[in-house]
Design brief:
Residues 1-6 and 413-417 have low confidence and may be disordered. Helix 3 packs across helix 8, helix 5 (106-130) packs across helix 14 (350-379) and helix 14 runs antiparallel to helix 15. Helices cover 79% and strands 0% of the residues. The radius of gyration is 21 Å and the shape is globular. It folds into 2 domains: 11-192, MFS general substrate transporter like domains (Growth Hormone, Chain: A), CATH 1.20.1250.20; 218-406, Growth Hormone, Chain: A (Up-down Bundle). It has 417 residues and is an all-alpha fold. The chain has 17 helices and no strands.
């Protein structure tokens, strides 16, 4: 039941969960910038070595979620969050100790980035699978709005915080700061009193059989099937656009790296606004139309960017407006995509269904990045950007056509107060 004294926090255990999520996201986002910075500053790493380091951080997302989904459907999800937070803390403690001893190695950063990436991949599945145990179904949209608010705020602030701390405090102290964030996240989860009830799975079935069961559930569900295809499509061409946008902004618009960062930070505030108004928009439009509207808002305004030329102030204004709409729309849609998936999926399948969705959607990200780079070389940046944005817009058109008309009926508990 919602705690009337603290309606914004829903209830005490959700508040602890949310604070823990915030601390862990600060740690994950911040350290993702600190590692490449330290590799360059302390080891004079080459661009390709920095690229490999970034790949090491995201590579586990291609394999870990599917296995994590099976693991999480066989046991309570809370211990997995403790493993993620305290495991990440221990990994960063080892990195800080080696940095303090003056013996940094590139291999150390590769290994630590991969381990942290593995924990992050588990965390992404655990968080979404555990949340329904802390709130009632009518509170899921509100709870997911709070989570999306955290993702939005941290996405804007944490990378810059990592750069500032590295410059002001030095690499070792910056790593210590982020390991303390993970420690705080673990303590928040430890304080949660709610205990989960799980339907036991037959132990006779193997891992791959259980993975297939999660995939089959999505394949049989018209709603989940379309939402998974939509998420994969959007991430594929979203990453293509973002890869081209960085190059286009620096070359055609003439943005400095600092100006580019400011534009994206200001634009990122749209995600915070989207998470705050999701409840009200959903009440007015319903889940299905909110998802379609959010994806459309996150795509249509981007069409203005390759049409701009001339004064820098105009390019900045159009870019901020377009990416504000981008971050607002996609955050708004994500609140209802996640809530719908949580409502219509049985608890004993939620880990595997979440893992399958993230495997498909997140697995498209590195493909989209490579596709963007190749398209930029083949067609030129402006033409490739137009192609990418048009394909991204096709995603919401397909969603509008393919999303079942009865989505609101199926996910009504998530939209109810």
């Amino acid at each position: 039941m919602r705690n009337r004294a603290t309606p914004f926090l829903i209830n005490g255990d959700f508040a602890k969960f949310w604070f823990g999520l915030t601390f862990s996201e600060i740690g994950a986002r911040g350290i993702s910038l600190v590692f490449p910075l330290l590799a360059v500053l302390t080891l004079d790493a080459s661009p390709s070595e920095v690229g490999y380091l970034n790949a090491a951080q995201f590579a586990p997302a291609l394999i870990v979620p599917l296995l994590a989904g099976v693991w999480l459907d066989r046991r309570p999800r809370r211990p997995s969050l403790l493993l993620v937070h305290f495991g990440s803390m221990a990994t960063l403690l080892a990195v800080a100790a080696l940095l303090a001893a003056g013996n940094p190695m590139l291999g150390l950063f590769y290994a630590a980035a991969f381990v942290i990436g593995m924990f992050n991949a588990i965390n992404g599945v655990s968080t979404q699978a555990y949340l329904p145990a802390l709130v009632s179904q009518p509170q899921l949209v509100t709870a997911n709005s709070r989570a999306q608010m955290t993702y939005a705020m941290v996405q804007v602030a944490a990378p810059g915080l990592g750069g500032i701390l590295t410059g002001v405090l030095g690499g070792t102290r910056a790593v210590v700061f982020f390991l303390l964030c993970y420690a705080a996240a673990g303590c928040c989860v430890l304080a949660i009193r709610t205990r989960e009830t799980l339907d036991p799975l037959p132990d006779k079935r193997g891992t791959f059989s259980l993975i297939r069961e999660g995939m089959a559930f999505i394949a049989r569900s018209p709603v989940l099937r379309v939402l998974t295809l939509q998420g994969t499509w959007i991430n594929l061409f979203d990453q293509m656009v973002l890869t081209l946008w960085l190059l286009f902004a620096l070359s055609d618009f003439g943005f400095s790296s600092g100006l580019f960062g400011i534009v994206m930070a200001v634009s990122g505030l749209g995600a915070i606004v989207g998470s705050m108004v999701a409840r009200a928009v959903g009440d007015r439009l319903g889940n299905r139309r909110t998802i379609i509207t959010g994806v459309a808002a996150g795509s249509v305004l981007l069409l203005a960017i390759p049409l701009v030329s001339g004064a820098t102030w105009l390019a900045v204004a159009v870019s901020v407006l377009a990416f504000f709409g981008y971050s607002f729309g996609h955050t708004l849609a994500n609140v209802f995509v996640v809530s719908t998936r949580q409502v219509i999926t049985p608890n004993n399948l939620l880990g595997r269904v979440t893992a399958t969705y993230r495997f498909a959607a997140f697995g498209a990200i590195p493909i989209g990045a490579a596709l963007g780079g190749l398209a930029g070389e083949w067609f030129g940046l402006r033409t490739a950007l137009v192609i990418g944005i048009c394909l991204l817009n096709l995603g919401w058109v397909l969603s509008a056509v393919l999303l079942p008309a009865d989505l609101d009926r199926l996910s009504r508990p998530a939209a109810a107060r």
